[in-house]
């Protein structure tokens, strides 16, 4: 069912390790060719194009592209009380963590009469995407919206695909999550067309909006399929984006102390997202590897999405990786740079401190990835495809900008004048120096 890769006795560089490890193919380049006409059509024809693509891709032509307020209220009123309690607790915990992420302004006095301040300013408006294909993700609404709210963003819009069995509106639980969070601008728009709508805005035929359906945003965030990732690539520069997210990944570094049932269950939990989801176990224990493989064979047959899980585990993106010891295991998981990394070993907390590349690290047997997906308080929108080597998960920082404020008085500038002129002349930009001299002569 799942491939084995044996790295024991092999001394490999970080690059060689990365090449030896399994990885899902995102295929953004191919998808971009299919997505470009969609973006152009939405930019040119607004609501008409959005309805056409909803009918084509989602099988329903929405009467309302912008969800009426009454539908949001009704979705919240009809929400299962236990689900509501779970979402409310998730919101509370995620808000606590993200409130602590707010960066602080500072002022540096570099010399008498010379100061540089740095202010953190939220972006004006954001567009947040919540998928609705193989699964529905109200938890993604929580992650995106809370981070933006705690950053101080003043205008938030959410888009999620229209559902045939919801009369062309997004899934009711998505709508209920928006209502819980106080978001009243919600669109029944999915896929690449939602990204295009956010990036360029859209003229509309909604009676409550007149000629404007959706105003452009400054930043687009949220997970999605390869077409959403391709659309983000094409509009990057027009708007900011969080990342070109690929299929979800879990890597587990485990030794003989790990419970094979826990490990197998955690691999399956991520594999059920998508047939392209990656599930990777890294272990020095052949016995654990065999026990996990045995448990996978048993558990996959009884899980709800057995076919999807089996495809993901059997795919080239998933594997059991055998290593000499935990030191080599650390090298392997750092080279992989997983979206989610679990450490189920003796001394797991100490090993976690030594990991340098992971979207989020889950320490010990009682911190499964599922906890982070919903209620740990961390954000579950994380870098995939090895992007954890250079990028972070979604957070308050995704929605703020650093603005530097420079203030010198006359004496402070005069003290530097000759040095500025010297450097400016050396760069053959004499007018730069003259702009300083003009103030004193």
Note the main attributes of this structure.
441 residues; alpha/beta; Rossmann fold; 6-stranded parallel sheet; 5-stranded parallel sheet; 17 helices; 16 strands
Write the layout of secondary structure elements.
Layout: E1 3-6, H1 14-20, H2 28-45, H3 47-58, H4 69-78, H5 81-99, E2 106-111, E3 114-122, E4 125-129, H6 138-151, E5 155-160, H7 172-181, E6 186-188, H8 191-200, E7 202-203, E8 212-214, E9 219-221, H9 226-235, E10 240-241, E11 249-254, H10 260-271, E12 278-283, H11 286-300, H12 306-314, E13 319-322, H13 326-336, E14 340-344, H14 348-354, E15 360-363, H15 369-374, E16 400-408, H16 410-426, H17 430-437
Parallel strand pairs: 1-13, 4-5, 4-9, 5-6, 9-10, 11-12, 11-14, 12-13, 14-15
Antiparallel strand pairs: 2-3, 3-16, 7-8
Helix pairs in contact: 1-13, 2-3, 2-8, 2-9, 4-7, 5-6, 5-7, 6-7, 8-9, 10-11, 10-12, 16-17
What does this structure look like?
This protein has 441 residues and is of the alpha/beta class. It folds into 3 domains: 3-26 and 246-377, Rossmann fold (3-Layer(aba) Sandwich), CATH 3.40.50.1980; 28-217, Rossmann fold, CATH 3.40.50; 410-437, no CATH class. The chain is 44% helix and 17% strand. It has 17 helices and 16 strands. The chain has helices at residues 14-20, 28-45, 47-58, 69-78, 81-99, 138-151, 172-181, 191-200, 226-235, 260-271, 286-300, 306-314, 326-336, 348-354, 369-374, 410-426, 430-437, and strands spanning 3-6, 106-111, 114-122, 125-129, 155-160, 186-188, 202-203, 212-214, 219-221, 240-241, 249-254, 278-283, 319-322, 340-344, 360-363, 400-408. The strands form 4 sheets. Strands 1-13-12-11-14-15 form a 6-stranded parallel sheet, with helices on both faces. A 5-stranded parallel sheet has the order 6-5-4-9-10, with helices on both faces. The protein is globular, with a radius of gyration of 25 Å. The termini are far apart. The model has no long low-confidence stretch (mean pLDDT 94).
